[in-house]
Amino acid sequence: MVLKGDKRGQVTIFIIIAILIVAGIGIFFTFRESITSKQIPASIDPVYNTFLSCLDKETYVGIDILESQAGYITLPNFQPGSNYMPFSSQLDFLGNPIPYWYYVSGNNIQKEQVPSKAEMEKQLGDFIKEKINACRFDNYYEQGFGISFNQSGAKVDIKINKDKVDISLNMNLNISKGEESVLIKNHKISVNSKLGMLYNSAKKLYEYEQETLFLENYTIDTLRLYAPVDGVKLTCSPLTWNANDVFDKLQKAIEVNTLALKTKQGYFSLKKKENKYFVEDISVEGNVRFLNSRNWTYSFEVNPSEGNMLISQPVGNQAGMGILGFCYTPYHFVYNVKYPVLVQISSDDNSRGTGEIFQFPLAVVIQGNNPRKALETNAVKFEVPELCDKKNTEIQVNVFDTKLNPVDAKISYECFGTKCDIGKSSSGVLKGNFPQCANGDVIAKASGYKDTRYQFSTVNQGIVDVIMDKLYDLNIKLKLNNIDYNGEATISFISDDNSRTIVYPEQKTINLSEGQYEVQVHIYKNSSLTLGATKSQKCIEIPQSGVGGFLGFTKEKCFTIEFPAQVVSNALSGGGKKNYYILESELSNSNTIEINSKSLPTPTTIEKLQNNYITFDERSLDIKFK
């Protein structure tokens, strides 16, 4: 006799057994692949180990590419630079392209290309999946093994950690020999790599630069130390600098100073006497280097300039300024400097016996002697030329020289201060789409020709002919009182649109086109003129104190201004000016411009120096083309 309660106990036992059976079946199917992988026959095991070694090798190759290409295996689309902004979207480093993490595009838009860790993991996974076919099993095929896998259906999961990279590959791999056969689906390896740590340090450094602009600030210091920016000198002769020499010196200084930069954790390896100025207050894991090369893309601009010369004229020696009693030459030059910096973060060592290096480039931009504005979270546009995005009027531009020969020129269009690049003429003809504008300027630029502007409305379709004046290189021969002169002088050819100035005798050639010029020659000679220290009084009206000031009464207050003694080492001693229309026939049929000027008395007092400037305005020049 069975009690009712006993029946319920038996049912409960059967239910528990059924649950355990179902759970066991689930566990079997869930872990079947890992169980199977552990039961690889000994004869097949070497083949599988070869496959895992291949997987390990290709993973390291992919990691090396990521580290050397700023976190990319597949590079972003290439974007070229322009004359205004020289940066393309990639830095050419030893023949290898590296995507910039920050750069300014050719149309003056700030751009970022910082890959996320998820993007790096995806690209590494895609790389490994593609490279599985590179695994070689020729020796095993010869031994009678059968090896097959389905690459197209493979799935790769990558996890980049601080000190290692985990790879999980889901792909059917069949290995057989004779009667033995095994199917392996899940393949897992873990490789030692500092990729995660190096990437984190690179990201931290990049964000620090975007917040502080420390690279731009170092550049400003270098600019003011190695180039004339602004200041004043007590001298009665012009100050001149060769822009090419200035840029060469600045370029060398940037290269050396960039290499000297260090981060805080690297400072402890410095000697105590080394300069703390180059140590940035940021600590990251790994060893950091900042690199720059004169062979990389640079852009230097300076204004005002006369050709490749920077010239500043003196104040105080002109007629009507004798009250000053001394001369001074102020100067102020505005620079735009753009160049790349390559940041490298390296680990001390890794399992392969050599340290890993993660590198990324970024652009350093100085505009108008000031650092660029710090980049916001999203890329910020300086000024987007909306006009240039709406080119919908077809215009044909025909470009000729003065003899109606076709000229290949770069064509742009300017409307109310906005300039749009259109293209380059071929055999003197360009058909292109222009933005619509009334009374804009078609601008043509070609090597060996003067830049030409032609006012043309692009509201409707049409054809415009542009005539360009050819530029000619001629030698300059300066004479003083009909005798060859090789002393200091400045020679200027001043026109509305093509002014040129040279510093003689350092420069003896000039580049001119046909047109109306005012030719000026200033000749300077050694002078023994000494201006003694002087004092002068300056008085101004200031409000009275108390009730008088409230009622608007004033009183006079005087200040004594002291001028230091000054030696005028070079003084105006000759020259003159002349208006002259230069014909193209004179330029094309001549090699030399001979300019004869007359001397002025060597000044011994400030009054005589001012008299020379008065006489200078009345002196003419003899100009001959030979």
Label this structure with key terms.
five-stranded antiparallel β-sheet, 626 residues, 5 domains, alpha+beta, five-stranded mixed β-sheet, 39% strand, disordered N terminus
Structure write-up:
With 626 residues, the chain is α+β, with helices and mostly antiparallel strands. The strands form 12 sheets. Strands 13, 14, 17, 18 and 19 form a 5-stranded antiparallel sheet that branches. Strands 27, 28, 31, 36 and 37 form a 5-stranded mixed sheet that branches. Strands 5, 6, 7 and 8 form a 4-stranded antiparallel sheet that branches.
Structural class: alpha+beta
Contiguous helical run count: 11
Distance between the termini: 140 Å
Largest sheet: 5 strands, antiparallel
Proportion of residues in extended strands = 35-45%
| Strands, count | 37
Number of domains: 5
Overview in brief:
The protein is an alpha+beta fold. Helix content is 25%, strand content 39%.
Give the SSE map.
Layout: H1 4-38, H2 45-68, E1 90-93, E2 96-99, E3 102-104, E4 110-112, H3 117-131, H4 138-142, E5 146-149, E6 155-160, E7 164-177, E8 180-192, H5 195-212, H6 214-226, E9 230-233, E10 239-242, H7 243-260, E11 262-263, H8 264-267, E12 279-280, E13 287-291, E14 299-303, E15 309-312, E16 329-332, E17 334-346, E18 357-367, E19 370-371, E20 391-401, E21 410-415, E22 418-424, E23 429-435, E24 440-445, E25 452-456, E26 462-468, E27 472-480, E28 483-484, E29 489-494, E30 500-504, E31 509-512, E32 515-531, E33 534-543, H9 547-550, E34 554-563, E35 566-582, H10 584-588, E36 592-597, H11 606-618, E37 622-625
Parallel strand pairs: 11-12, 20-26, 27-36
Antiparallel strand pairs: 1-2, 3-4, 5-7, 6-7, 7-8, 9-16, 10-15, 13-17, 14-17, 17-18, 18-19, 20-23, 21-22, 21-24, 24-25, 27-28, 27-31, 29-30, 29-32, 32-35, 33-34, 36-37
Helix pairs in contact: 2-3, 6-7
